[in-house]
């Protein structure tokens, strides 16, 4: 006679049923002792629970669960670890496998489970109440999923919990006060949800607590005074909520705190004079975006490990302590949007001391009351510096040429001061510069040609009529009987450094430039291996040029023949728009029609890039250029030409991309052509551990712009002003995410 168990319910058998099974085992004279029989029964329980967990997975792109079958013991299944003694599941770890589905309630049957990690997947639904039956559970990590609903009360039955991480999900409701009963809890991370209410006072009873993060929620009321009892706390993060009142004084006395983060709330008060003495192990200090006031305590220099200091957007007054340079490990310092300084020559003396900080990357003291001359000691600041923000103050004198020594700057803001004189030639040495703001000063003289070396610059704001613009070094090709050529030459000459435009990079078309490519994304009919950032910059180059032609010229210009062969890449990967042979001037009184066109050149355009209205005799408009740009943008991102053979009948590039949004964009097996797959893989960024940074949001956002530009009806298309703005926002967000991820990788390694 054979004992077969085909399925277990999610509930443990009652005591009565348990006794029946025990008697049944012994009555059958099992070859094993009754305890072994029960052990096998427990093993079978785990196996069936795992299969139930598998059954709720709707998408398994890495084929994780192919190993979950009866050909091998379940203890050898991928992601599973069993204990040596009982051979019961002690760890279920499917971190970062892009799984989607719900969490099966059968998970509660894995009663020997100590470690459960479902981080960085796409699980949705709610946490099953049965999790509360995992009495041995010590580590629960559900970060970066799509889980919602309220945090289940039963989770407080997991009395052995040390680590509880539910960050970046969609949980709602209040933070359970009962979590304070988990006496062994060391770390609680609820970052990035939609939780409301207050921080429970009961947390003050958790004597083992070291890590608390409830940032980026909708919490309100005051920070509980009882949190000051957490004498072993090392990480305190409550930022981006609606917290009010003052920070409990006892929190400032917890010497073990490394990270103190409470930005973007409505907190107020002054900082204790001895804060650097009591928080002597402080490494990161964030309180920006609140209502703090008073002076910056000079005692901060006693926190010798301080790396990040951000008190921006508050009401601090007085001078910055001159001994800040004693903090040799400083990496980021942000004083902006306060009332610091007194418009005196002594205001900026703290900069000299910061020359001791060899790791300093970011320094911003913009939007304050700093006066005097920017000191030459700026040249002694760390060459690692990537951002220097000093705009919106009362500084005067000449722009220091020493800034040119900060060769790693990607952003420089000196706007809205009283600087005079010329722009230093040395600024041309800032080859990595992407943003430059010098507007609203008293500058004069000629713009140095050396600024033409700034090949990565895409935000430039000078806005100074006294500056003289250099002539663009182009060969002006004469067009017989066409006054348009003269007008275009004038327009294009101004495109190199069009200094009155905010947040706009404009370009000079130079056919005489050496080694231009005939296409920004193809070389000899093969896809160019450009990464995503390079493709984004090509798109911004092109959209900015069209924005200028459509919206910023005295008379708007329609290109009429945008296509890849008319977009040239120079050696610095800067895109230039060429071939204005079919271009039209558009009278502003013509309501975006061509009835008052100056030129009589017949519109031809190029099949697949030409808007549909041109094919039926429609007049040229700026919306026609927008359509062409949209198709080119889709081509830039996907690597797919609109004239490929696959596009027949009603299928075109626009419809093809639309059918893939949003869910199939990064699912490579769903794309139809191998060439596209290769292009998409090229655009991925990988780090040492080969984990791919998630670029899906960026790619989808750009593709949506391409689709919005290439819709059939002209009036439904975007304009190039909005296109340029959105592309810049998307690119900046991508760069921030990549920089943050790379920094995490460096710190992890």
TrEMBL record:
The species this protein was found in: Hevea brasiliensis
Residue spans crossing the bilayer: 484-508
Name of the protein in its database record: Protein kinase domain-containing protein
Entry membrane topology: Single-pass type I membrane protein
Subcellular compartments: Cell membrane
Domain spans labelled Protein kinase: 359-735
Keyword entries, A-Z: Cell membrane, Glycoprotein, Leucine-rich repeat, Membrane, Receptor, Repeat, Signal, Transmembrane, Transmembrane helix
SUPFAM superfamilies per UniProt: L domain-like, Protein kinase-like (PK-like)
Family to which the UniProt record says this protein belongs: Belongs to the protein kinase superfamily. Ser/Thr protein kinase family. Belongs to the RLP family.
InterPro entries noted in UniProt: Kinase-like_dom_sf, Leu-rich_rpt, Leu-rich_rpt_typical-subtyp, LRR_dom_sf, LRR_N_plant-typ, Prot_kinase_dom, Ser/Thr_kinase_AS
Signal peptide: 1-37
Pfam family, one: LRR_1
